[in-house]
Design a protein that fits this description.
It is a single chain. The protein is an alpha/beta fold. It folds into 2 domains: 191 residues, 3-Layer(aba) Sandwich (Rossmann fold), CATH 3.40.50.150; 66 residues, no CATH class. Helices cover 38% and strands 18% of the residues. The protein contains 11 helices and 9 strands. α4 links the parallel β3 and β4. It is elongated and about 70 Å long.
């Protein structure tokens, strides 16, 4: 595969990369072995390639694992994908939105997905029982997943991802590895679900909802940020909500100063 090969495919099928779908096609196969290595790919694995494009990564993976589920939303690109994997009996092509499509079971994710999908895809992956996910994504986004408490990048996604998995930023990926080159820097991201979570929460959806809410007021102290949430969700008076909020753990800390474990403790301490 090369720049020329990708360009020829685009020209011969009269396809123009769609900016709205975040289409940047990787042209450097040297990164494929790295993705496989970081995912500890084995012959028994079934891999999801989310945003499979023209299937170059798909074919590489299919020769090294049990099966590949190749998901591609763009109809024209999916048609080329089917051509490219013809004869690969262990590849299943799924045309449609990977977040909504009915997919065969898989145990690992190895992908170079469209960057606009990053946040939703990471959350979607963490909701599933996978061994790991190794993806090439926007560096700035990935830095939010591993941000330090109190930093500008620290946010709800940092907290929620930390509860579910160990996130690591690995090799940088140069812009000229893609056609067309993205406007942002890229990096290989590894997500590996914890064998034992670093802290427990009683209600996962409440944990996510509360964390998102609090980070909309990241510079406020917890008691002040939490009061309107309690009023809204527990249907209490302002006085009663303030009483609960001021008796919560870490009530005098600013939201941005709270650790992921703190958010778990706050969620667990809230009345049902």
């Amino acid at each position: 595969m090369s720049h020329e090969a990708i360009q020829q495919l685009l020209l011969s099928h009269k396809i123009s990369p769609n900016k709205l779908l975040g289409q940047n096609f990787m042209v450097e196969p040297a990164f494929y072995p790295k993705l496989a290595q970081y995912a500890a790919l084995s012959p028994s694995d079934v891999v999801l390639d989310a945003g499979a494009g023209f299937g170059f990564l798909t074919r590489f993976l299919s020769e090294r694992c049990k099966a590949v589920v190749a998901a591609e939303k763009d109809r024209e690109v999916a048609a080329v994908l089917r051509e490219q994997v013809k004869g690969y009996g262990n590849v299943t092509v799924v045309e449609g939105d990977v977040l909504k499509a009915k997919l065969p079971p898989f145990n690992k994710v190895i992908a170079i997905p469209p960057y606009y999908l990053s946040s939703q895809l990471v959350m979607w992956v963490l909701e599933r029982s996978v061994d790991c996910a190794v993806m090439i994504l926007q560096r700035e986004f990935c830095e939010r997943l591993v941000a330090k408490v109190g930093s500008e990048e620290y946010g709800w996604l940092t907290v929620v991802v930390h509860h579910q998995a160990e996130a690591k930023l690995l090799d940088p990926v140069p812009k000229d590895m893609f056609i067309p080159p993205p406007e942002v820097d890229s990096v290989i991201l590894s997500l590996k679900p914890w064998a034992t979570k670093p802290f427990e929460v009683k209600n996962q959806s409440a944990f996510i909802q509360l964390t998102k809410w609090l980070f909309t007021q990241r510079n406020k102290k917890l008691a002040k940020a939490l009061t309107p949430y309690i009023r809204s969700h527990l249907k209490l008076s302002k006085h009663d909500a303030e009483t609960i909020a001021t008796n919560m753990p870490f009530h005098d800390k600013r939201v941005r100063e709270l650790s992921p474990k703190d958010f778990g403790a706050i969620t667990n301490a809230l009345p049902n």
